[in-house]
Each structure stands twice: as structure tokens, then as C-alpha cells.
What we know:
The protein is mainly beta. It has 2 domains: 21-97, Carboxypeptidase-like, regulatory domain (Immunoglobulin-like, Sandwich); 225-790, Beta Barrel (Maltoporin, Chain A). Helix content is 5%, strand content 59%. It is built from 6 helices and 52 strands. The strands form 11 sheets. It has a 22-stranded antiparallel barrel. A hairpin with a 2-residue loop joins strand 44 (674-685) and strand 45 (688-697).
Amino acid sequence: MKTKLFLLCAILWGWQSFSQTYTVEGKVTDNGKSLPGVSVFTKASNLGTVTDENGHYELEVSPGTYTFVFTFGNRREFKVSVDSDQTLNVDMSNAEEALDEVLVQAFRVNADSPITHSNFSKEEIEERNLGQDIPVLLNVLPSVVSTTDAGNGIGYTSIRVRGSDASRVNVTLNGIPYNDQESQGTFWVNLPDFASSTENLQLQRGVGTSTNGSGAFGASLNILTEAKNDEPSAELSNSFGSFNTRRHTVEFGTGLLEDKFTFSGRLSQIKSDGYIDRAFSDLKSYFLQGTFKYGGTFIKALSFGGNNITYQAWYGVDRETLATDRTFNPSGIYTDENGTTQFYANEVDNYKQNHYQLHWNQRLNQNWSTNLSLNYTYGRGYFEQYKEEADLVFHDIGAVSIGNETIENSDLIRRRWLDNDYYVVNGTLNYSDSQFDFTSGLFYSYYTNDHFGEVIWSRFAGDSEIRDNYYFGNGTKKEFTAFSKVTWRLNDELSVFGDVQGRFVNYETSGLTSDKVNLLVDENYNFFNPKAGMTYQLNEENQLYGSYGKAQREPRRRDFENGITNPEILDDFELGWRLALGNSTINTNLYYMYYKDQMVLTGALDDVGAPIRETSGESYRVGLEIDADIKISSLFSTRPNLTLSRNKNIDFKANLDGEIRNLGNTNISFSPEIIAANQLIFHPSEAFQVNLISKYVGEQYMGNIDSEVSLLDSFFTNDINIVYEWKNPPLFKSVMFSGLINNVFDVKYESNGYFYFFDMQNQAGQTETIEGAGFYPQAGINFLAGVTFKF
């Protein structure tokens, strides 16, 4: 309790050190006509407002330099040095059309929305982007915990929000779902260096607003890819670091051609040996984009994708090995004919994924616009594995007779393939004026795949041929979604929000699983998901909001394999307070999430390292989230956040010692009660800053039976991020130097793990439960350093 009180006091520290504030006010017009309903905000802060019916706005800010942004379908930006009260009048008639952002308008919320959210800008991404995946970059946001198999933020990484795993975080790229349609997971390793092509992103915690794809049960993450740039540009980035990590990226942009077209692109390569033994990554990716803009028409066509070759590191290590050999990796281990322990060199994932998107936005007039999006995603790849003494009959080779000897088992190498196609069509209609923001949309997707296994070598192969299939199955998923949402500003103080969504899913499978079990599924799910909220502007400093949202989602493929067919249901209640006082903003949020048939992680893993889930019946999560942006002085600022929560299964039952037991209310797996982070930023000039990034994650159970064996210890880490931009040097527009020292105090910690238990007979013939756990060690002190040349 003392720790919680200390963290709560620390996050609020300094909020009374407010300096003098000034008022920036003005009138927004369009060819001399007052323009109500224009969003006005400052970049990299929560300060924002909307012009009134006379086009007038007013913002209070502390002394400093700000970029004021005015958006109304189009966009204007002004960099202003504020050292007194100022008047800034804006004419939007010649403003740049901000049609890029319309692509995600249907799924995002504004600063004054009753939805709990955080924004992450391109500038913030650039400061830390040295090749680590997006989940690692987002680790500074409230209620977020990220982890990585290889231990150094490259390769397989994942994110949890409010204790919900990555398969329950809905991710969209330009409004197109990215979660795999069967596993519902997000595999960032298939999009290496995607942060370099990200314009901005928004993380909505809880149910959030209606979005495409599987329902958000912990959060939804909406990513907008690189915006069009009217100025020609080129960038060359290189970074190097610990564990032989290196990243090479080249980017280009043509700028505006014939006042209508732009083209841009990126090629990247990332390589790393990883912290864990042999956990290497060899990652390649590309991003190509073309835009057309003429009048109210904006068309954006893009293709992006990647190829990952990643050595497996999902086995982890047990507690004894953790103490003696933290980096040990059992993956690929086998014994050769001489009895010598060896490791198979190609125990890898080898997967390619290509995305093709087309977005057409049409502004019909000042109030109405439409958007049509098409998507095709093609994925294919395999997991290669060396198997000792494998069953030849299981692999459709059959027993082999040599003389009088019958051989039924053999060492072999197999590949387990996934080949899939994903098609999407999505359309939205948007209306906006000074009183209403209305969006309605239709979404349809079709997903199909093949799962199959092949043997590429066997010590005893009989009459089999290389690449003969030993199992084959497929799956098809069709989804149709319709939604409408509206924000109604009743007056300057009060606005209400309503959102209704109908989601209709059909999932079918046939053929065999990798365990050679028939999987025949033909299930339909019809979901109605209402959401509502209210925002009340108490005064210029205080804003209150409340919301309710319902989410429902279907089981994933592995759930069906385990006999689970019921959908899970979530009712999410949020109550928040936003405080803006000059040089400080503080957001406080209370949430209560009640689940029926929540799919919680058991702690155990399947035979390819994916978490196994179970239905927990009734459960809940209740918590307090606080995040702030505080300017301590002209040289220092801080961005702390804190989450305190309780996460419980109600009357949880488990099979222990040969009988079903009611364990009462138990802790939900992988749900720490305390998550805190802070950025302490020293910025003596606009070109130079040093950021101390701290992260604390409390202890958590890796299972649902509150076993001490399943405890994952708390950890507290600190990173230092240094950025210096040399502006207008010879030959270049600028040169940016960046460095990242991770885990500066060399803490030995584990951010993830697994837990299993099973019953067995002891020598006395009694049934007893055997428990065990594994852990994923993370790297000690390590570094990344990079330089970016901008032409």
C-alpha cells in the first residue's frame, strides 16, 4: 500500500509549479466568413478546443514555442512563440487539405471525446526509432506492458494493455484490420521497421469506439501510415548496437508533381543476434506509396510488407536455468549419432507478408465526405523444426524395413506452413458541422488459408518424397460490419456521443490440425455492440467525461480446437477527468470492465509457443489510470503515468489433485496491479534533448490459480534516450543523431513467462498436481546508436 501511495504522490509531484500563463485567441474564417466547428490544438499536448458559432477560439498556454494546428477537413499549422497574450486569426480558404487523416477519422476520437485514449506523434516516434518494434515504443503509455522473446526488442514482440494480451488488442492500419483473422494476434515481426512509415497512432484503452475487425477487449490501436509530403525529400538512416544489432533504412519522397501527385517509399533491413542464444533476426521490409489530389478528391495507393527469418526463442528457461544460464535457448536441441548435444541451425520462422491498399476520399462539400478503402493481404511461410525420433507413421512415411529390422521412428526435419489471403472492402460517409460529427460505415472481409505440414528430410524416408504433406487443413472467415456514430455538441459545455455497431461473422474449417485431428467448424456469430458517452466542460481548466461500451468477440481457431465455441462479452464503464492548467495537463480515468466468458490465458503454451486460453466464466477488471504532461521549468518536463488495478476471476474452478475445486476469486493471469512509467525530459534547446524513461511493472501471476510457482516478479527499468538534430549542415537539410541506452542499471528481470500444471499419480497411487514455470529473460544494459541524414 505504501508503494501505491508513493507512486500516486510521485505522479502528481510538481503540478503546483505552474508558471504564468497567456491566452492565445482569435477568429477562424473561410474567405471572410466565420467558420464554426474548427478543431484547434497544439502539437504534442492535450490542449485543444473547437471554434464557436462565431468562429472564435481561445487557448491558455504557458510561455514557450508551440505549433498551433487548425483542422476542418483541411489543415493549417502555425509555429508561435508565446511570451504574452496574443491574437492569431486564421483564414482556412487556402489551407492544405488534410485528407490523409480522413482515412482514419471514422475510427479515431478527438481530444474532448468521452473515450480514454493516448496519441503518439511522428516526432515522438522518430526520437526513439532505432529499429525496435512498435510495442516497445509504446511501452511508455498508460497500462501498457511490452515484451520480447529475443530479449532486446527486436524479433517477436508483443503488447498487453490493462492485462489483456495482444490477441485482444484490435490493431488497424489506415482503418484496415491487421490482427490475424484466425489467431487474432498481431505479429509485428512481419512488418519490420514499420515505425519509420508511421505518421501517428492512437491507442484507445478499453472498448473504445467502433472499429473494424475483432472487438477490442483491452484496447484498440489505430495507425495512420506516412502522410503525403509536398516537398521532395530523402533520408538515409543507420543504427548499430548491442548483440550485433544493425538497421539500415533509405527513404525518398518526390514532393508534389504537377500539383497533383506524390510518390514515396522506404527500404529497410534489420539484423540482430538477440540477447537469447541464437535468437537472431534477419528482417527486410518495404513501403511504397503514391497519392493523387485534385480539388476534393484524394486517392492514396500503397503497398508494404516484410520478410522475417527469426530463430525460435519461445521456450524460455526454467527457474533453475534462469539462475545459472539466463541466455540458454533449448530450441533446436538434439543429440547426434555420437551422443553429442547439437543445435539445429535452421529452427526458424520464415514468413513473408505483403499488403496492398487503395483509399479514395471524396470531399463533397464543406460538410460531407466519403471514403472507400480496398485491401488485399497475402501471407505465406513456415516454421522449420528438427524432430528427434519422430513417429514415421504420424508423418505419413510409414514404417521402414531394412533387412529384418522395422524402423518406426526417425530423426526428421519438417515445415509447418500457413498460406493465407485476406480481402477487405470498407466504405464510410462523414458529416461535420459546428454541432454534429456523424460517421457511418460498412465493412466486409473475406479470409481464407491453408495449414499444412511437409517433411523435407528424414534419416529413414522409405518411399516418401520430399515435401509430401502429412496433414492439410483450411479455414475461411467472412465478416460483415455496419456502424454509425455521432457526436452532438449541445452547447459550449456539453456534448454527447453515441455509437452502434452490428458485426456478423461466419467461420468454417475443414481438414486436419497439426496434431492430425479433424477440425470441422461452421459457426455464425451475430453481435450488437452499443456505446455511449458524455463530455462536460466544467470550465476552461476542467473537463469531465463518462462512457459505456459493449464488445463481443468470437473464439479463435485454437479455442475451437480446445472445444470452446461460446463468444466472450465485455461491458466497459469509464469515468474521466481532464485537467489543463497552463503548463500542465493531467488525465485521470476510472474503469470497470465486467466480462462474461472471458478468454483468459492459462499460462501454458501450445506446440508452437502460442498462449493457450480458457473460459473463466465471470470476471472483472477495475482500475485507476493517471497520466500527465508537466512542464517543471524552461529546461525540464515530465510525463508520468500510473495504473492501479484489481483483476479477478469470480468463483474460478480448476482441476487440482484429481478433483474440481472452486478457488473463489483468483487473480487473472498476466495482470499486474501496478503499472507505472515516466519520462523526465531535459531540453536545453529545440535541437537537443535527453530523456530518462522509467518503467515499473508489479508482480503478476502467470496462471489463474494463484500458485506461488506462477509468480512473475516485479521489475523497474530505466532507459536513456538522447537526441540531437544538427540543422542546415553542409550538403543536408539536417542530420539527426540519436542514442538509446536500455536498462542503464543492468537490472536482471523477466517481462514474460509461462505456467503449467497437470495431475499425475504418485508412488502411493494418489493423484497430485505437478506445477512448473518458464521465464523469458530480458537483456541487461545495452545500447543502440544511430544517425539519420535528411536531404
